[in-house]
Amino acid sequence: MKVAIVGVTGYSGTVLWQLLSQHPNVTEINIYTTQADLEAVAQQFDWQTKQTVRVLPFDAGQIMADNDVAFFATPAGVTGELAETFMANHFPIIDLSGDLRLQDPKAYQKWYHRAAEVSRETLSYATYGLTEFTATTTDYIANPGCYATATLMGLAPLVQERLIDLDSVIVDAKSGVTGAGKKLSQATHYVDVDENFSLYKLNQHQHIPEIMQQLKQWAPDMGPIQFTTGLLPVKRGLMATIYAKVTADSADVNEIIAAAFQATYMDKPFVKILANDMPDLRLVVGSNMTAIGWSYNPVTHIVTIVSVIDNLMKGAAGQAVQNFNQYFGFDETAGLAQLPLMI
Ligand SMILES: NC(=O)C1=CN([C@@H]2O[C@H](COP(=O)(O)OP(=O)(O)OC[C@H]3O[C@@H](n4cnc5c(N)ncnc54)[C@H](OP(=O)(O)O)[C@@H]3O)[C@@H](O)[C@H]2O)C=CC1
Ligand SMILES: CC(=O)N[C@@H](CCC(=O)OP(=O)(O)O)C(=O)O
């Protein structure tokens, strides 16, 4: 299988390259760049891999002629523009940006503050690739956002089984700094991040409509969510702490919630449900795992769910490879055997 990566010099593009370099079904990796110096990129990625690696200027026609699939690890807006030709030719693409996730171009304009590059009709052919819940995969795969992935994975069993009040969800999520991409900004400057913790994009985060779009598919009467994001002074890792009012009022609430998580995730290789514990970032960073813990408070009737991922793995490149595996019918875990770093 020959794969193209666009945006390899970014954080998630680099992790994507690492994963595809070790993928048993990938024979050739072709790197395409719109802006970087070809020789510098070639040097950066000229490590020993079993595949052939070539670095070339971006050319849609050549990418389609020389590859079986193209991964876009480029910013929102850029992907939409670059990927148009691929979609016009029904060439398989896996997009890590938000450009193919929202079905409604008006919602995209509102939350991304720019006009959508992709038409409503084309969007309707895209698969929102939340892999544990993807039934069928089309040629255009919208890889979910990192916060959206952790939040949806934590909420899925409770919303699908309607175990919570659908108007009561509050999400307090935090990410490591690689989530912001490699471009330096005041907020991600070392001096501002180190030994600090700050909130950002309050009530304005672009993952809110993406999360709502999916939740409403699971429960059409889903109410709005309260959603907060914060910047942790770590490189990788994302934690979503989710609060919701439980509707069931019986002595066996704990058993009901446990059974819902168990039924949803028992055959999912990349999900770990902790029985009586809360996950921390170290449990997942470096791996494609989602670890979920929960606790029910019988006094307030609130369930707290903690969902953690590595933003660059399950939140980006790892899930993209899972989508690649699903699309081509490879083993779901192919290329994704990495254990967490742990220390
Ligand atoms: N970082 C994360 O945790 C997550 C990121 N995402 C999404 O994945 C995509 C990539 O993210 P990330 O790796 O963080 O991004 P980075 O900012 O780290 O890298 C983006 C790469 O895109 C390429 N690029 C092409 N055109 C532009 C442009 N106009 N401005 C900047 N870069 C450009 C460059 O690669 P080159 O020079 O090689 O062409 C660049 O290195 C984004 O859409 C992001 O929203 C999604 C989930 C999580
Ligand atoms: C720490 C940080 O800034 N994180 C980014 C996550 C971006 C991301 O996941 O990208 P998509 O918008 O493509 O999903 C943010 O909150 O915007």
UniProtKB/TrEMBL annotation:
| Localization | Cytoplasm
- The highest taxon in the source lineage is Bacteria
Q: Which Enzyme Commission number(s) are on file for it?
A: 1.2.1.38
Q: Which residues form the active site?
A: 146
Which Pfam family is one of those matched by this entry?
Answer: Semialdhyde_dh
- Indicate whether Membrane appears among the record's keywords: no
What does it catalyze? N-acetyl-L-glutamate 5-semialdehyde + phosphate + NADP(+) = N-acetyl-L-glutamyl 5-phosphate + NADPH + H(+)
User: What main location does UniProt list?
Assistant: cytoplasm
InterPro entries on file: AGPR, AGPR_AS, AGPR_dimerisation_dom, AGPR_type-1, NAD(P)-bd_dom_sf, Semialdehyde_DH_NAD-bd
Which CDD domains has this protein been placed in? AGPR_1_C, AGPR_1_N
Q: What cellular-component terms does GO give this entry?
A: cytoplasm
Output the GO biological process annotations, alphabetical, semicolon-separated: L-arginine biosynthetic process
Keyword check for Phosphoprotein, yes or no.
Answer: no
Identify the pathway: Amino-acid biosynthesis; L-arginine biosynthesis; N(2)-acetyl-L-ornithine from L-glutamate: step 3/4
Question: What are the entry keywords?
Answer: Amino-acid biosynthesis, Arginine biosynthesis, Cytoplasm, NADP, Oxidoreductase
EC class name: oxidoreductase
Molecular function per GO:
N-acetyl-gamma-glutamyl-phosphate reductase activity; NAD binding; NADP+ binding
UniProt similarity note: Belongs to the NAGSA dehydrogenase family. Type 1 subfamily.
Q: Which HAMAP family match?
A: ArgC_type1
Q: What does this protein do?
A: Catalyzes the NADPH-dependent reduction of N-acetyl-5-glutamyl phosphate to yield N-acetyl-L-glutamate 5-semialdehyde.
Protein's recorded name: N-acetyl-gamma-glutamyl-phosphate reductase
The species this protein was found in: Weissella cibaria
